[in-house]
Batch of 4 targets.
Target 1
Amino acid sequence: MARDLQPQGIHLAYVNFDGAIDTPFIGERFQGIKDEDMLEPTAIAESYWFMAHQDPSAWAHELEVGPFKEKW
């Protein structure tokens, strides 16, 4: 889709948020989870903002986001 739509100025990207999002539901369901183990909704929004406002000369088409202390 990106190849077809890019000439029209439409930026398609795949964004993978690999982690729990800090919401009331997650807090209730996983009561032992620490704040630093979760993705902040405002940080997620900033990631989308970054992708949406890239210069067309350097579009990223894939972004993976996870908590900084994730064990590999």
Target 2
Amino acid sequence: MKAYFISFFYAVVVLSAFCLVARAQNGKPPVVVIPGITGSQLVNGETGKTVWFSLNLGNELGDDLRLPMFPDLAQNRDTIVAKDIIRKIELPGILRVFPDTHVYDRGIEALVAAGYAEATWENPRAEDSFYVFAYDWRRDNVESARLLIEKIEAVKTRLDRPDLKFDLVAHSMGGMIARYAAMYGKTDLPAGDKKPNPTWAGARHIERLLLFGTPSEGSFSAFETLVRGYRIGRGFLTFDRMSKEDVFTIPALYQLMPYGESALVLDDQLKPISVDLYDPANWRKYGWGALGNPKFPARLTDAAQTENHRSGRGTKTVDDQIHAQTTRAQAEEFLRAVLRHALKFHQALSVRTPTSPIETFIYGGNCEDTLSGVVLIRNDEKGTWETLTAPRGIKTAAGRKISKEQMKKAIYAVGDGRVSVRSLLLGSATFRAGATTTQPGFPVKSTSFSCVQHVNLLNHPKIREQFLTILGKPVEAKPIN
């Protein structure tokens, strides 16, 4: 009888393990859709007012988006929260004559057509489902990666599925968040001069990683935004914009700046020069961003007053008071901290790993001129520097003429208009006779390129067909430890 019960016990254990494996095979793994920067709707958590994307015609300042500026980045919080990813931008009123802008809705529609049902983090389901990861894209990407893992862990707990793994479909900066989550889990960046060491702590939650236009080596579009500000549309059709003072406060933008050999800086003869984008001294020297304006603190005060007038509040909010009291010294201390943190973030993602426990697939565009460098020009008469982020004809200090076409060739590369092929592959790309030969800088299952712009990668029919095929492939059953 004793032998019988022992045999029965082992049979139950084996059968339970088999059921766990079989259950993992029954249906497709759940998918998490991770948008890029500006791809999540942000609302005021107290009033419910949408602050991004607002569709306010001619909106001059996105003042509500400014974060406080303390060197401890985790301290810089406000009342804004992420509500949903931006699926489609529908133009109001008479502007309905213009076509709507599809952001992530067509990618989501493709998932639904393929048999996936949308679940929520609060009401989860396992197989054949997808979740959207809306996050505050202004904040530190390490913090967003931690939040992603926490949400996944909460779903697994609610479903009582410790074996469950997710496929991550990540666009643009969302891919950097996904990669960090996979490589380091919920671990913060190392303190001091300690080197990052990938533990792949997030791999136990992730089956496959699909990256769409992810700037693994950064993007000069982010640097240009920090230097000049950001707007959507032009002229009368400017729907929303962020001033240089607004974007100065956003840590995630600094983490999107070019890194390594992709951080190409040229002199007026189009020769590479050594300029560290992560050195705050260079931001002062070249007048980059909001700190290049000597009236920077006053602009913060004016912005707070403008927002109060526009909203009808009449008095300053706590956030307005913080901005109005920000000194130049505090802003410079914040800049040092945010640049140092951004550099460490890039170093963490750039660790070369010969193998990976996660299958990674890369999708990108390869037919658009993409900003991949800047030119610095010295004005000796004024004693100032000009940073060129668009090609134009110039005359060097020695009197030599540089044509617009020459500059275009020097500062543009092949990409999707925002992210170069080189950055997409972490610095490993060569070009021969118009063709692209690629060797990714980290383990990748496959790469796929199409003639498509950055914002349309998930909407492109060919790419949709490819990634749905990958998601539909059965996952090899693995024993549960």
Target 3
Amino acid sequence: MRKIILLFTFVLSSIAATAQTSLYENPNFDEIAKNHKVIGIIPFKATVKLRPKQMAKMTEEQLESLAKNEGKMIQTSMYSWFLKRKKRGKLTDIDVQDPAKTTAILAKKGINQDNLEQYTPEELAKIIGVDAIISGTFQTNKPMSEGASAALGILIGFWGATNSAVVNMKVHNAIDGELLWNYNKKVAGSIGSSPEDLINRLMRKASRRLAYTKKK
């Protein structure tokens, strides 16, 4: 009986793990990526789902500002991840545009986090002058940054690190907007308050299938 219970638990765990992670890779990604010289990362569309009582203590503007900041942090954390791999010689001959430059170029065109979704990936890539663009969504029930978490702890009375987050990361080709790579992962449990921790966990296994990382 004990063996049956253990087997049942294992099967359920396997199903849950599969449901929480999905990866799509364009069969031509490696070949297409050979022509890429610069990739850009735009702010992720973030959603912070607080409890009703917590949300009642925040204004709509405060919640919107919190979500935007979370989206920017994922963008900069992703940029840092690429820079570290490049420094270690683990990336192909590819450059990653500084998010500050990306934001400045978009701002000059009147594009910000409020209207990003009005533009296609190829349009955004052309505007910021890159060969591929990374974008995505981020959902969490607590803010990732330690500062934001502490501020909300004082404001609405909760503390602690993020304990549930879902990241959906996409890579689109600049020329035709074709989807080259899509990785969706749910991270649960205590993962620390650093956005870098989240990105590291997100990319740990998926990066092996990312065309911009050198294969062993």
Target 4
Amino acid sequence: MAIKELILLHSNDMHGDFLPVEKDGHLIGGLSLLSGYVHRLRTDNRNVLYVNAGDMFRGSIIDEDYLGLSTIDLMNRLSPDVTVVGNHEVDYGLAHLLFLEKCARFPIINANLFVTINNARLFEPYMNIDIDGIRIMFIGILTDEVLASTRSEKVIGSFVDVREAAREVGIIADNYRTRKTDIVVLVTHIGIEKDRELASLLDPDWGVQMIIGGHSHTFMDEPEFVNGIPIVQAGQGSGQVGRFDIVYDTFRHRITELAWRCQPIDDTVASPDPVMEDLIAHYKGQTDAKYKRILTHFARPLTHPSRTQETELGNLYADLLQWESSFDIMMMGSGAIRKEILGPVIEYQDMLECTPFDDNLWMLKVTGAQFRQMVLYILRDEAWEGHTEFYQFSKGVRIVYRKSTHTLEELSLHGEPITDDRELLIAMQTYHYKNFDSFFNVPLEEVSRNLKPRVVATSVNNIVEEYFATHSDLDAHVEGRITILD
């Protein structure tokens, strides 16, 4: 038979979203319902593939307490046909990721993560899957941000330029795509903006017919076409899954019909997977016994709805880290705050899941001119379009930025303008310190001449835990510390 039907499911940026939430009497998301949906489609349909576009790890104490081993165990039950490496897959270290790969009963691919000494790839760059007479080549592409997480591992590198990544796709297509290859799919973890750029650089003769992406947590109602190639993402978490319905003519070797939608996952479309439920209950029982002690109460639930704006939780964390410190301004990475809502009851587990990236706190001295340059770079156009680093500032900072003119109309601290010759002590976590040049567009070497940077705390969460334990009825509001004018 020449005409074949194929369902291609995909998820991205699950970030330990293992448990369902209840809303309006229905259960939404969670790995048990997602697994139930995937397994039902596999049972009811002949040709079903499931792809994961990276960032399985982080976001849940179940993941962190087991350093990702629990996530691999749960994903083994979900059984994706192919996965790619995301930037958070390296959070526990490259060596540990290679160990986790050995524990996975599903393939993990990546074409552009390599050892710099001899250019040897760390993972298989592509995978061919034959299903009912259709051969699909999947190629994995990683974000350049992986270098930010592995900055101390000098032997690890990546093709950080999208043009080089496109060239690598061409090399793989030219060398390994054959007459038997029917469909070529890029599974990327580079964010929607880079996906667009990558698609525009692909030679049609390489045969790429779709891009399944991740990293920018983009929710889509329909595919976006660039260079004739559909680009899709499925937001983040387990509350939805992307779904391609494909009709393929094996005689003419072409897709004749292609439809895509983002399918919500709830108890109206799937029944819980009992095996997955038992696995999650096992791990949750272990972590609950260790982490379900109450630290504090908030006056009300506090929110962090977007990483590109001032938020209530962002102000709370920036203020408590600056409180009784030796520095003037805390710059809290927006992406380091992982929950969109927290409170009013705060358990130890909640704290760890909200700020999972626990590392040193560094203090640096910058001039007003350097600080201005840093802020302008943070607020550049890409901040609103993609997945750049953004920051929450501690009390007293006021930034008024006009997007249309790319100018700062106000930059002050405690009501006093920050002049170019003023000296400021700022603080940030190790991740941002190690990537200072690329995140702020100011050379760390230049800043270090003002004052040698030093560690002022060895654990951010030590500070957070102590503050929570000694304060109650905590509250925070959006105060206009960051004001963006159109």
